[in-house]
Amino acid sequence: MTRLITAFTFVCLSTISIAHEGAEGVIKERMDRFKQNKEAMKSIKGNLSGDAAVIAQKASEIEAWANEMVNFFPEGSTQSPSEALPAIWKEFDRFTELANANAKAAGNLKTLAQSGADANALTNGFKALGKTCKDCHNDYKE
Ligand code: HEC
Questions:
Q1: Would you call 65 exposed, middle or buried from its count of C-beta atoms within 10 A (0-12, 13-18, 19+)?
Q2: Which of 72, 84, 94, 133 is the most exposed place for a label (fewest CB within 10 A)?
Q3: For the segment 45-69, what is each residue's pLDDT rounded down to a tens digit?
Q4: Number of domains into which the chain is organized
């Protein structure tokens, strides 16, 4: 009986957690990766006068994701709770260019961090990178 109740509870809990998570498959994957981007940007910001190795590592992660993100946007994948806008597929070339600009800015910041740049230069690199996130969100994210 206890086992039956446990199994029943488990099924109920799984259903609830699926309902809460909402996003599935490729949409969930890309949302998770973008959340990691946000965390990476936080770490970078906290290390502008700190550990350059952390900046290089996080910038490298952002660069890697920027280089593959367009593959995570199959046509029309805007199902709730995605915040992706249909304009992405009307202007996929521009969307791709913005992803490339994001990769390039992340690569620049990585190089700065690896070459012992001062906090001022790192801050400028960080801001330039942040702008490439915003440039894309302005037109392609709710
Ligand atoms: C080329 C376009 C593009 C670039 C560049 C880009 N994003 Fe996004 N981002 C999106 C889109 C589109 C979504 C919505 C994805 C979805 O909900 O399906 C998104 C979603 C997000 C989210 C919300 C994730 C969630 O569901 O909670 C965060 C946070 C985020 N991006 C951070 C960043 C950061 C930080 C950068 C830069 C380091 C960045 N993004 C660069 C297009 C971009």
A1: buried
A2: 94
A3: 999 999 999 999 999 999 999 999 9
A4: 1
